[in-house]
């Protein structure tokens, strides 16, 4: 397989492809990295010229047109917010800024304290906020980028593809990848979980080594109280990426959500005991 790595989405993106010829492999890599760049440009919270930043500035005043990528990610984010009763919440940007995790978006109106994901209206390719709020798609956009990179490489003629963006992983074709979880504590011990074929996985953690919270429990307004490392397996990486958040907060409560989306989770808690939830990983 031909492998290349580039910085993107705030992490190192590694893509491996196999194809009948070297020329097709190069074209598949170029198409995959172009797809990653497209998603990053549209949904970056930090870039003032991204579609997401424009939504945070202007969607409370008037509907804003967005790209197919942003519309697809937002549609899935809102679906998951409803299915999880807000455990996954794309409107958490204001709380993350208040917690010091994200910078305040320049020029955006202060979020209404009562605003939530239900105030986000998606109508085709147009987005409107019923109240001022700050969207953050960081909990799902990286997974979507992995999905579209995989699809782009396959469309360009690759017969086998692996895309790994900082632990968000998708695999398709005649190839497999070993999914491992980093064990909390000193050292860099990795725990093998499963061999991944034609599917996706995403990992996240709270209270392990991070100095800042990676997720806020929207219902409590605070980070999860129990340190956990989580890996979710799902048909698509966007799903796996998003589902790590409700699993981090409460694996047992998230089990029906995992089942609903054909997903499973491996959870390593403070007692170092590995638990599995949802479908068999």
Salient structural properties:
281 residues; alpha+beta; T-fold; globular
Q: What is the average per-residue confidence, as pLDDT, rounded to a whole number?
A: 91
Percentage of residues assigned to helices? 25-40%
Tell me the fraction of residues in β-strands, as a range: 25-35%
Query: Helices and strands: which structural class?
Result: alpha+beta
How many helices? The count is 7
Runs in which pLDDT lies below 50 for 5 or more consecutive residues are none
Would you count the extended β strands for me? 13
What form results from the Cα inertia axes? globular
Strand line-up of the largest beta sheet: 1-2-6-7-10-11-12-13
Order of helices and strands: EEHHEHHEEHEEEEEEHHEE
Largest sheet, strands/sense/barrel? 8 strands, antiparallel
Radius of gyration: 18 Å
What report would you give on this structure?
The chain has 281 residues and is α+β, with helices and mostly antiparallel strands. It is built from seven helices and 13 strands. It has helices at 22-43, 51-58, 68-83, 93-98, 141-155, 237-249, 251-260; strands at 2-8, 11-18, 64-65, 120-123, 126-129, 160-165, 168-173, 177-182, 190-196, 199-206, 228-234, 264-268, 274-278. The strands form three sheets. An eight-stranded antiparallel sheet has the order 1-2-6-7-10-11-12-13. It has a three-stranded antiparallel sheet with strand order 3-5-4, covered by helices on one side. Strands 8-9 form a two-stranded antiparallel sheet. Strand 6 and strand 7 form a beta hairpin. The radius of gyration is 18 Å and the shape is globular. The model has no long low-confidence stretch (mean pLDDT 91).
